Amino acid sequence: MSNGVETLEFQAEARQLLQLMVHSIYSNKDIFLRELISNASDALDKLRISSLVDKELVADTSDLHVELEVDKERRTLTVRDNGIGMSREEVVQLIGTIAKSGTGELLRKLRESQDAAASRELIGQFGVGFYSTFMVADTVTLVTRRAGQSEGTRWESTGEGTYTVEAVEDAPQGTTVTLHLKPEDSEDNLHDYTTEWKIREIVKRYSDFIAWPIRMAAEGADEPRTLNSMKALWARPRSEVADEEYHEFYKHVSHDWADPLDIVHMRGEGVFEYEALLFIPSHAPFDLFMQEARRGVQLYVKRVFIMDDCAALIPHYLRFVKGVVDAHDLSLNISREILQQDRQIQVVRRRLVKKVLATVRDMMANHADRYETFWREFGRAVKEGLIEDEENREAILDVVSLASTHDAESLTTLRGYVERMPEGQSAVYYMTGESRSMIENSPHMEAFRAKGYEVLVLTDPVDEIWVDRVGEFDGKPLQSIAKGQVDLGAAQEERPEGFDALLAWLGERLGDEVREVRLSTRLTTSPACIVGDEHDITPTLEKLYRAMGQEVPPVKRILELNPTHPLVTGLRTAQEQGGADEVLGETAELLYGMALLAEGGDLKDPARFSRLLADRLARTL
Ligand code: ADP
Ligand code: MG
């Protein structure tokens, strides 16, 4: 390969994102500096860890810091770190492409959004990192050398589709980013990033807690000045930290541009000392339900950054919680594997979970609007906890909100449901399915509606699983209205007689499709419905598993008939009187098909079904 200048193209997604930056859809341009300092700080963290883990690494770690430099004449601002740096491949990989999951979806939404404010919101949720430099610069130059390597790399771009890379001989260890600032905005020189006070102010506001010194040459002084206090926010008493500071810190750890919904600041004393500063975001990240979703808690040991995405500290269902845990008595060298088994870490994790759930409960009790946002954004993830985390099942059930037939507009808690249960109702009734309207209109609902019993309407895929696993609430069984026998207290009524022959005949006739045919107590207006046994998986779950590529043995369910429906009584009479086998058989097929359709199921042979139906209809005219 030549040592000359090579011109490369940005990856398509990166190009589109850059376009947005160049045309500056975000109004608060100051944050580009936070992004650069955050990257520099990460690079210093990484170098410190590498040098601990890899004794062979030849790197200078004696004075790790970030340095800022302005040049008024040339209108440049430079951010320099002596951290881990990047190899040539890394520059191309990390700066030339975006590996973040959800990029495609974000860009699609941005294209569709006509509203500038909504676009800003979207892009803010995504976090644009290094590319935000193109909001203020028309050319960006990056010179970097990976610690332990001899050759450096120079990267340059105007953010317009391509960039250049070339090898350089004399690059210092770490990364130097130089912004060639756009011409000054005459309307407000607020955007003059070459003035010392402006830079100082931005650093103070956004990056004060950064653990490494951020230095800048001061006018009239020989020594550069350190701009940040480097005080770890989590180590300060809550009473001394302003909300503003919490929010900026949150934005630093989360890459979010919006303020958090709630803050959890706690410390543990005694045998195992730690401090935790956690945040509940105000919106879900794009990748919340993607395979590669990461956990948002970072681990520090005595103020030293150890790792991101610390799974040992927070369970999967709370993966959206962001923040920092500083544990005082761990080795700096600790690995993820050892961490998972560390007893004390397990104790910390337990306390964090309880505290987060208590915070949600408090929101629920005292800040209804915030809780509503929380549940809308994270409810689906939290419900996974009902399956994952048996220890906290009760606490999770307390903060769950569910749709119900009680009120179409708002959700209910399980507690609220139980309190509304009329005398004589012994179970918490629910139905799972793909949509609210499907559930509400399903024949299974009829008798419950007639009785005035409330039914929970569960439409999230995860609902299918937790209801089974949880089994009961407050001593009352959770009972699917589409499963098992229902006893609506109407058992006193007489069991209709004279259907035995019909049931036996239908059972045989439809034997390939259903396990049993029986009379129903849950129907008032429909002729028939299909129900599962207590432990059968539901049709929605069956579909879900199939969609995930899992083998599911076909489940035969039960056909229930409404003994008061004219179609059923008519069929009985016809069968008793020895009607033509073909006509009866077709009627049985239609009856079963209608029951399937009514619950939103799929017919095996839709063409045949509509032909039979059309023939019948034609005869009625
Ligand atoms: P993010 O920080 O969210 O990963 P950025 O766009 O800010 O996204 O940066 C992209 C990647 O480029 C970083 O993850 C990092 O690997 C690399 N990078 C950026 N700045 C530096 C730096 N100063 N030193 C080393 N690597 C850097
Ligand atoms: Mg970054």
Q: Topology, please?
A:
Layout: E1 6-9, H1 12-22, H2 31-53, E2 66-71, E3 76-81, H3 88-96, H4 103-112, H5 116-126, E4 137-145, E5 152-157, E6 162-168, E7 174-181, H6 196-207, E8 214-217, E9 224-226, H7 243-254, E10 262-268, E11 274-280, E12 296-301, E13 304-307, E14 322-327, H8 336-341, H9 343-366, H10 368-388, H11 393-399, E15 401-404, E16 407-413, H12 414-420, E17 428-432, H13 436-440, H14 446-451, E18 456-458, H15 461-470, E19 472-473, E20 476-480, H16 500-509, E21 514-519, E22 528-531, H17 539-547, E23 557-561, H18 566-576, H19 581-598, H20 606-620
Parallel strand pairs: 2-8, 12-14, 17-18, 17-20, 21-23
Antiparallel strand pairs: 1-6, 2-3, 3-7, 4-5, 4-7, 5-6, 8-9, 10-11, 11-14, 12-13, 15-16, 15-18, 19-20, 22-23
The protein binds adenosine-5'-diphosphate and magnesium ion (MG).
Magnesium ion (MG) is lined by residues 35, 38-39, 129.
